[in-house]
């Protein structure tokens, strides 16, 4: 059934001018952009988004990186959205990402890995609501 996922293009990919190429791949893979914006997180706000990782050794670096420049959060819609989008972006570590995936093409490292994709329908809703008001999710 048609459903939604949440993504954000991360600071490394935005700064290098790769956001257009990434959005083109997303649309060519059949995803409809439901909502989109571009802005910069504060470090505190990045920390709230990644609160689930707060005990991890990479948490502080991750929050600094995610607030280092503009990001492009989006809500996307497609049949089987969460699983299909994770296939499109590839493994978290670009060294392990399959050929042709967004991370294989654009990620710099396991941290600066170009793009985020929600890991469940439940998290897609929580993460989309973090960035977009209900009236923006048409
Ligand atoms: P993502 O899966 O979108 O959300 C959690 C992020 O934490 C992940 O992308 C990476 O940017 C980062 N991350 C995950 N694992 C590591 C790691 N081992 N070292 C540094 N950063 C990581």
Automatic annotation (TrEMBL):
<dbReference type="InterPro" id="IPR001564">
    <property type="entry name" value="Nucleoside_diP_kinase"/>
</dbReference>
<keyword id="KW-0546">Nucleotide metabolism</keyword>
<keyword id="KW-0963">Cytoplasm</keyword>
<feature type="binding site">
    <location>
        <position position="10"/>
    </location>
    <ligand>
        <name>ATP</name>
    </ligand>
</feature>
<feature type="binding site">
    <location>
        <position position="113"/>
    </location>
    <ligand>
        <name>ATP</name>
    </ligand>
</feature>
<feature type="binding site">
    <location>
        <position position="92"/>
    </location>
    <ligand>
        <name>ATP</name>
    </ligand>
</feature>
<dbReference type="GO" id="GO:0005737">
    <property type="term" value="C:cytoplasm"/>
</dbReference>
<keyword id="KW-0460">Magnesium</keyword>
<dbReference type="Pfam" id="PF00334">
    <property type="entry name" value="NDK"/>
</dbReference>
<feature type="active site" description="Pros-phosphohistidine intermediate">
    <location>
        <position position="116"/>
    </location>
</feature>
<dbReference type="GO" id="GO:0006228">
    <property type="term" value="P:UTP biosynthetic process"/>
</dbReference>
<keyword id="KW-0547">Nucleotide-binding</keyword>
<feature type="binding site">
    <location>
        <position position="86"/>
    </location>
    <ligand>
        <name>ATP</name>
    </ligand>
</feature>
<feature type="binding site">
    <location>
        <position position="58"/>
    </location>
    <ligand>
        <name>ATP</name>
    </ligand>
</feature>
<keyword id="KW-0418">Kinase</keyword>
<protein>
    <recommendedName>
        <fullName>Nucleoside diphosphate kinase</fullName>
        <ecNumber>2.7.4.6</ecNumber>
    </recommendedName>
</protein>
<comment type="function">
    <text>Major role in the synthesis of nucleoside triphosphates other than ATP. The ATP gamma phosphate is transferred to the NDP beta phosphate via a ping-pong mechanism, using a phosphorylated active-site intermediate.</text>
</comment>
<dbReference type="GO" id="GO:0006241">
    <property type="term" value="P:CTP biosynthetic process"/>
</dbReference>
<comment type="similarity">
    <text>Belongs to the NDK family.</text>
</comment>
<dbReference type="InterPro" id="IPR036850">
    <property type="entry name" value="NDK-like_dom_sf"/>
</dbReference>
<feature type="domain" description="Nucleoside diphosphate kinase-like">
    <location>
        <begin position="2"/>
        <end position="136"/>
    </location>
</feature>
<comment type="subunit">
    <text>Homotetramer.</text>
</comment>
<dbReference type="GO" id="GO:0005524">
    <property type="term" value="F:ATP binding"/>
</dbReference>
<feature type="binding site">
    <location>
        <position position="103"/>
    </location>
    <ligand>
        <name>ATP</name>
    </ligand>
</feature>
<dbReference type="GO" id="GO:0006183">
    <property type="term" value="P:GTP biosynthetic process"/>
</dbReference>
<keyword id="KW-0808">Transferase</keyword>
<keyword id="KW-0067">ATP-binding</keyword>
<dbReference type="InterPro" id="IPR034907">
    <property type="entry name" value="NDK-like_dom"/>
</dbReference>
<dbReference type="GO" id="GO:0046872">
    <property type="term" value="F:metal ion binding"/>
</dbReference>
<keyword id="KW-0597">Phosphoprotein</keyword>
<keyword id="KW-0479">Metal-binding</keyword>
<dbReference type="GO" id="GO:0004550">
    <property type="term" value="F:nucleoside diphosphate kinase activity"/>
</dbReference>
């Amino acid at each position: 059934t048609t459903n939604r996922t949440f993504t954000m293009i991360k600071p490394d990919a935005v700064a290098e001018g790769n956001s257009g190429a990434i959005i083109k791949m997303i649309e060519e893979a059949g995803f409809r952009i439901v909502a989109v914006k571009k802005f910069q997180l504060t470090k505190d706000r990045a920390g709230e988004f990644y609160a689930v990782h707060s005990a991890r050794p990479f948490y502080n670096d991750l929050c600094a990186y995610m607030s280092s420049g503009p990001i492009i959060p989006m809500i996307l819609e497609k049949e089987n959205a969460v699983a299909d989008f994770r296939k499109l972006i590839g493994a978290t570590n670009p060294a392990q990402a399959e050929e042709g995936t967004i991370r294989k093409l654009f990620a710099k490292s396991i941290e600066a890995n170009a793009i985020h994709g929600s890991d469940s329908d439940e998290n897609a809703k929580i993460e989309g609501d973090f960035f977009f008001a209900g009236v923006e999710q048409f």
